[in-house]
Amino acid sequence: MADPENVDSPSLEAVNDGAGEESHVQKEVESKEAKIKEEKEQDSSQVELNVSSNAEDVATPENDKKEKKTKGAKPKVKLSIKEEIVAPPVQEPQEVDPNALPENVFPLFMTSKTQEIYNCKCDEDVTQENPFKFIPKVDILEDMKMRAAVCDFHPFKQQIIDYPGEDILIMYDYEFKYGQNFLLAMTEEAKEILLKPPDDDKGEGDAQSEVEEDASIYLYVPPEPKEWTSQGSEIEIEEAQIKQTRKQLKVSVKRVRRAFGAQVTFEDRNVGDVKDGLVDCHTYEDTNFIISRVEMDKGIQAIELNTTQGTQTNWTYPRTAASQTCPREYTAKEQDQSYNSEQCQKFIVNVASDFHRSLQQNEIMNVFHNDWQHLGDGDDTFGSKADNYLKEYQSFTDLQFSKDKVITCIQWHPIIKGIVATSVAERLSFDERVDHAARVIMTPSLILIWSFTDPIHPQLILEAPDDIYSFAFNPNNPNHIAGGAFNGQIVMWDITSHADRLRQQRGSNRNKKRTVLPGFEDPNVLKTPIIRYCAVSSIDHSHRASVTDIQWLPDHIQVNKMGVPQENVTGFATQLMSAATDNVVLFWDVKPSKIHQIHDDKSKQPMGVPDTFKHLDLTWKPLLRVTLSKSEPGGDHAPTKFSIQERQGDRMSALIKTDYKEQDSTKTMQGGFHKPSTAGKERILQSVKTYIFVGTEDGEVVYVDWMPQKDQDSGKIQTPKPAFYHTIHDGPIVSMERSPFFKDVLLSVGGWTFSLWKEGVSSGPILMPCACNVKLSCGMWSPTRPGVFFISKVDGTIDVWDLLDKTHEATLTQSVSPTAITVMSPYQVTQKQQLIAVGDNSGTLHILEIPWSLRQPTPNEVNAVSNYFEREVKRRAFVEERWNFREKEKRELESEHKKKAGGLAAAMAPLTDDEIEMKNRQEYDLYLAEEASFLRMLGIIQEEEQII
């Protein structure tokens, strides 16, 4: 090895120039070190490295020339790095984090619901002392099939399927050390690590032995100080410091020698005014602050005024007093003398005329009439502001059947006053129903019929196969009730045998007319009877989703299988309509078919169940199916509520007697129809509009014809496409109600908004206020005032809107329930009393009394509201006209731009979508004009008729 002393020490400039060589040397050292590690058989005590200590080793052109000239003359230094001087830097072994998760162990968060399923509740089934729990792999796979992505094990689905064992280990993380409440072992090795963690002492010993073993190879090299290199930070620090940058002001005060020790007086002055800088400030009188004294003469007379007051209240003072008298009793002889005395006979003769007059007055007028209660009923003005609120009249709830349930539908009895029915359902989502399927099946689904005479116990209880979300009384025979179940079936009840129970009061005096022998009384006479349903529809032909709306058709019309409305000669409502979110609206007929009339079914009904609808049980199929398909591809409409124009009691369409003739397309769009291939014997009602408004789950309002027509493309008889639909609401539509005064005006409620629609206006709603800050749940019209309707919200409040008062906000907002309101139903009891039934999310039925100002219509209110609707229709037409004008203006501007572009390229440019639509519309209008001209020539249509 060469002597280091003979090597010329490189200069400072050479060292600086060889900075790049240091990195090269460092890389060479690291490569040598890797080779030393691989060759463990060699002695590691001494490592020889050839390091060039001359700066001329840097690969530069000048150094290359020098190397060629003095090849072999440059000495090389061979340093011997022993244990005392140690060579390469030591790579310390990476420390293993003791808190790191073992391999194939993952943190898992299990909800309380999942803990109940696998019996591993925190701090009950698993604790800090006993944190382990084995779960069968089969149970986890079954749970993932049932709940899919809701299952907490779903993120590890593939690892669980590939797991070879039968039981999977989970460990309760009491301290949330890894961010979740459980740990999941996905391999057998991970399971053994969790069950048998490595000993800490042993681990420390192994680590120490490894350190000692590494120490024999790697030796500590103390760091060498390096020259400090500035990176510019001291400039930023220096700029951040506050330093004085401007010169200080110097003030020099001078005084002549003779003035030393004299009194000093300072004053403000302007140096430029006086040469010597001396200014005298003399006092002067300021006229702005002169206060003059004014003499005033005042007179005061302090004499009390004399007042005279009077009161009818007698002044009393408390005192202790008592008196005791004996009753005056007459003997029989004294009584006869008093009756026969001349004084008594004279008294009777004097008062006889007054007594007869009082008896006559009692026969003519009611002496018990409360005049104060009915004071002001005959006035034609609004009531005062004090009584302008909804008053709590009564409430109904049952601790056994309706507590903690949601009221889904409310219906008033159409004949008997004071009877109201409600349907209750479980307050569960679809996933919760699946999870608690066993409990839901065992819980009865009921309809409770209440009477105002007994607010504690329901009068009747109707049992259903599943939760009822909508039901309705038959308008002609209220003893027949139809309901829509959660599973999509239509259910029928017959309460004829219990109808007397609704007409009489509940109590001990109820059965006094009955002659019952002592000891043979019925102990169950006061218990509420539970009535089983008579029939349910066929599950294969019913709805595929829960029935959300059901209505009876009016008793003056009926629909055949082709959807043609005909006259109902029986005068009884026998058909009903139902809607569900399975994209269809179904028509049902409760009359027995001809097959059932010929072949009477001899099967027996269960005990206590009438056989009124025995022919429908489990075989009932819909008469007509209306499929709501969208005009463009992309799915169908999912109806939740619907409304038809015909109403019960309005027989104008049945009284119009006209012969049937072929209808044109104009009347078809307005609710007419084309003559089907086969017509029944009943008279066809031409004035009945077959178009219905349907509210969907996506917040759409659809206007569609229920009568099927022949498709021009496929040739099949199917429901036509909707005439129009608008996506207005931002949530499922929960109410679609027609005004009781205007058949063509509807109220739709959904999401956070509501809107008013008018039949015949297809461009959109005629009124739509701004969205509410709370989600809406129901909407109902007032039965007596045309411009008033009620909107309920999920925060338990009701908004009362009066269109004659305000159209931008509610006239009255009142809180009714602490929970969400689900459904409402107003009812006109008498001319002087109007009630509204409100059902909430806790199973309570609130009966509220509507004040006089909200039930008594103003003079000519119907005309005022009608004029308001007409103005809104004109405004809507003007808005639509402006839209068309703007679109036309836009197309003209685009065409002008294309003309300016000029050339063949502009002429060959493809048409836009608006231009194509406009061109097709013009061609269609031309076709309609030619068709109308041809039909006039044939005499089919008159001159005043047009085809649109």
TrEMBL record:
What Gene Ontology cellular component terms go with this record? inner dynein arm
What GO terms in the biological process aspect are recorded for it?
A: cilium movement involved in cell motility; inner dynein arm assembly
Question: Where is the protein situated, by its record's location annotation?
Answer: Cytoplasm
Question: What SUPFAM superfamilies does UniProt report for this protein, alphabetically?
Answer: WD40 repeat-like
Question: Where do the record's region annotations for Disordered lie?
Answer: 1-75
Alphabetized, the UniProt keywords read: Cytoplasm, Repeat, WD repeat
Feature: compositional bias, Basic and acidic residues: 21-43
Which coarse location class applies to the principal site listed for this UniProt protein? cytoplasm
Asked whether the keyword Repeat is assigned, the reply is yes
Q: Compositional bias (Polar residues) spans?
A: 44-55
Keyword presence, Zinc-finger: no
Q: Name one GO molecular function term.
A: dynein heavy chain binding
Give the InterPro entries listed for this entry: Dynein_IC, WD40/YVTN_repeat-like_dom_sf, WD40_repeat_CS, WD40_repeat_dom_sf, WD40_rpt
Q: PANTHER family per the record?
A: DYNEIN AXONEMAL INTERMEDIATE CHAIN 3, DYNEIN INTERMEDIATE CHAIN
Please report the name of this protein according to its UniProt entry. WD repeat-containing protein 63
Source organism (scientific name): Lymnaea stagnalis (Great pond snail)
